[in-house]
Sequence to fold (513 residues):
Amino acid sequence: MNRIDILQESYEKFGAFVYLVYEGREVTNVDCDSISSQMARAMMELGVGKGDRVVVTMPNRPEVVFAYHAIAKAGAVAVPVMPLLQTQEIRFIAMDCAPKLVVTSDMLLGKVQEAVGELPQKPIVVSVDADANAGEAGALNRIAASQPDLAPNVQVDANDPGVILYTSGTTGRPKGVVLTHANLYSNAQSAAQLAIEYAGSEGNWVGLVILPLSHAFGFTMMNSTAMAGARDILLPYFDPVLVFSTIEKYKVTHFSGVPAMFHAMLTHADADKYDLSSLSQCVSGSAPLSAAVKAQFEQKFGCTIYEGYGLSEAAPVVTAPRKGFPVKPGSVGLPIPGVEVKVVDERGNALAAGEVGELTVKGPNVTQGYLNLPEETQKVIQDGWLYTGDMAKIDDEGYVYIVERKKDVIIRGGFNVYPRDLEELLATHPAVAEVSVVGTPSEAMGEEVVAFVVKRRGVDVTEADLISFCQDRLAKYKTPRYLKFVGYLPKTMIGKTDKKVLREWAREASSSS
Fold:
């Protein structure tokens, strides 16, 4: 149950195999083990010790994977940071976690150095590029090249912190989720077992990594691939055409993504120009996937999308569909092995099957808590149960259905309105390409319902038409008070619709009406 052992275990079980492919470059699990051992020794030479934090920020590439394994071998704690973050956002994370070292690439070097330049405890900044000029330390690869390729002798316990994942900060400042080696190992092991179930055998597939490796979802997929003896094709960023051409070239069998990616692929004009017949299954997570998009994607590309559920605080996978069990529409599947779930009311009392309440989670994947935030930790971890903040129901066979984020539930005139219900309905209208629903303050009703819609090209429809469409199919209190056409829906860096921005738009829309 220790992430530090993943590469060695993969060799003992499968021998040498191609683990990563990036821009034509093949990296075996043995290569990754050797390079990460050298990199770990280089980090220690730069002063990194057990328990120190090491920030890693760069687009997907093999060096991200090397760095994560190296940090574990050095006994340090990895802090993945999205490369698209702005200077002040990187500065906040660095101030919060006080890293000893920051590992980046040349293209981000200036931004990173500016972000950490005036910190009270200034970390060393290094680049993984050969020609780096990173000030104090220079190029990490150059330092690592002279090191032995044997892992340093550092005792790392399964309950030691292995990673700090910063949440997206949708309700305020980002929070650092502390995950142990055991948290990470157990979750990756479960994910690997599920993948093997669906593939039919170990190593019998080719994956595509388009999720950022700096995100919880991507981080776990990286670990589970090694555990299953499989191969991943790394892409530095998401672009539909790049995805199509990569699937065709490498005969990709599966990938994990977020709903925005599936929507972009589905609606792209060039999708039919590529042979995507190798693709058999996809996993959607991080946000709810529209039933309409799921059905259309599966029909168009001839593959199955499995929708699971997770969150950073659970390392992150909590539920997933299981082979041999029915896939129920609207469900995110069953709890993964070793994980318990229950739905509770406002006082923490367990609710009966079919009742809606807050989803709680218990298992070896659940976080120790948030870095430097003991009060926040006490709110979300109670008697060993993680309070997710997600409203859900569990049927009498144990299937979980996510209803809404607790903070996203709209209370209109005393009635609960779940935005996902309205979003699912509007998504079935032929004129609607994308939709998101939020609440906005109302003096008369407490909150009002606001829908933002991106229209399909060449379709003639009015706001009144769509409101009428909703009122014919839902109770009137659940339908939009305001419906606004927009050119796009704002997205977070992982591809979720940014409802924080939409709530600002909603306030502006309601005040001008």
